[in-house]
Amino acid sequence: SIQALSASAKGQAKKNASAYGNSSSTAAVIGNPKLPSSVMDRWLWGPMPSAEEEAFAVSELLGCQALVGSAATKETVMSALAQAECVHFATHISWKLAALVLAPNAESVPSGRKGSFGNSYMIPESLHMQDDASDVGSISDCPPLQEFLLTAADVLELRLPVKLVFLGSYQEANSKVTADGLAGLTRAFLAAGALCVLVSLWPVPGAASKVFVHTFYSALLNGLKASAALGEAMKRLQSSTLFSHPSNWAGFVLIGSDVKLNSASSLVGQALTDILQHPERARDALRVLLHLVEKSLQRIHSGQHNSMYTSQQSVENKVGGIPGWQALLTAVGFRLDPPASGLPAAVFFPTADPGDRLQQCSSTIQSLLGLPNAALQALCKLITASETGEQLISQLHQVLVQLQVGEKDQDFALAPIQVSISVQLWRLPGCHEFLAALGFDLCEVGQEEVILKTGKQASRRTMHFALQTLLALFDSTELPKRLSLDSSSSLESLASAQSISNPGPLPGHNPPFSPTGPDSLASDAISVYSLSSIASS
C-alpha cells in the first residue's frame, strides 16, 4: 500500500538534529546553516543556496542525512564529527578567525535588543569593523559567537575518526582565504585525528563546484584514493568546455595523507559476511534485500525522485532479525533514520546510483541466490576463513578462462577441466562441500595438493555465480574489472517477487508503486512502501 504524505514531513525529517546522532551513516554533510538576520547583517554571512543544494547532492551520494539550515548547530555538528569517516562542509568560513560558521541554537538567539554589551562573550578584535555607538544594538542582538563558530581551538579538543574533511568555498561567501586561517583550520583537523583535508583556495562557481564534487565523491566511492579522485575531478572540469578555465579547478588542494574510503563494494561484502553467519535464514533475508535494491533501481530508471520509505521494523521482520541488513542497505545508498516528526524508524530509498553500487549489489545478491542450496550452505561455513578466498577465486577464474577459449556449450563430462588446491584449504569446513556443489569431482588427494576435475553437474552459469560471490566476499576490489555478469543472468527479480499482487510496468508506463492522488506528481512528496508483497519467511 502507498500513502502520499505532505512535503512538510520531509522537511522536518531532514531538519531533525537529534535524528542525525543516531544515523547509521559514516558520513557527515553540513550545508548552509541558518543564521539570524543580525548575524548576517553584521558579518555579511548571507544565505548560500548553492551550498545547500550541494549538501543535499553530497548526502545523496554518501547515503547520509544532510545537516542544513537550523539543524546545522555547533552541538549537532560536533556530535556528527565524532562518528564520521568523511565530512563535507558547505558553509561560510571565517578564515580570519580560522572558524566554520554554523547555526546557533534557537535558545541562544536573543529575542530582542538588549542595548548594552552586558553579554557573557567577547567580540574578537579582528571582527570589529567599526567602533561607533551605532553598532551597539546590532552586536547585542547577535548570539554569542562561541555558540555558532566552530573554531580551530574547538576542533583541537575533539578526537576524530575522520579520514577526509572537505572544506568548500562558494561565490556567496564573503571571506577571503588567508594563509594563517588556512594553516590554522587544516592543522586543527589533522591534529584532532583527521587524515586528510581537501580545501579550495578561492571561491568556485556553483555549477563548476557541483560537477567537481559529484566526480570527486563518485571516484572515492569507486575505491580510488583521494589524490586520484581529485585528479579525476580536475580532469573532468579541464576537459569541459564550460569549466576548462583554471579558476574552476586549480584551487583545490589536498593536505595530509592519501586516504581511501571504505568502498561500497567492500562494505557490501562485510555486510553479506554477517548475513551468511546465519545459514538457516540467509536465503530469505537475501531475497528481501534484493527486492529493496531492485525496487530502488526500478524507481531510478523510471525517473522517480520523490522520497519513499518503508519502516525499519517491517524490514527487520522480513529478514528474520539477522544482523547485516542495515549495513548493506546503507552501503548502497539507503538512508536509515530514527523516529522523527511523526514518522517511524524508516528506511529511505535512494534516488540515485553513483558508481553503479545498487546495480553491483543486485548482481552479487543474485549470484548468491543463484548458487545451489548446498553451495550456499557450504559457503556459510567457509566465510569465516578469509584465507580461502584467494585460492578459490584463482581456480574458478582459471576454469572460466579455459571455457572462454573453448566452445561455449562445452560438455564438462567429455572435456573436464582439472584444478588443484592445497590440502589445507581442502580440509577447511565447507570447502569440499562447496566445490562438490559446484560440480567438481575428486580425482586425487596428495600430501600437499588435492586434484579435482569438472564433472557432469558443473555448469558455466554456476561457476559465474560462484566467482562473482567470492569476489564480493573476499576480494571486492577486483570485482568490477575481473568479472561482469550479463544483466540477463538475473535469477531473482523484483518482478518475480511481485508477480501476483503487483505486475511489473511496461516500458514508458508509470511503475506500479507510484503514489496516487494529487501528491503523485510532486517531487517532494514522501511515499510509504509496503513489503507485504514479499512472502513471509
Automatic annotation (TrEMBL):
Domain TTC28 C-terminal: 371-478
Highest taxon of source: Eukaryota
Endpoints of the signal sequence: none
Ranges of residues in domain CHAT: 4-257
Biased composition, class Pro residues, residue ranges: 504-515
Organism whose genome encodes this protein: Micrurus corallinus (Brazilian coral snake)
Protein name: Uncharacterized protein
Membrane-spanning segments: none
Positions of region (Disordered): 495-519
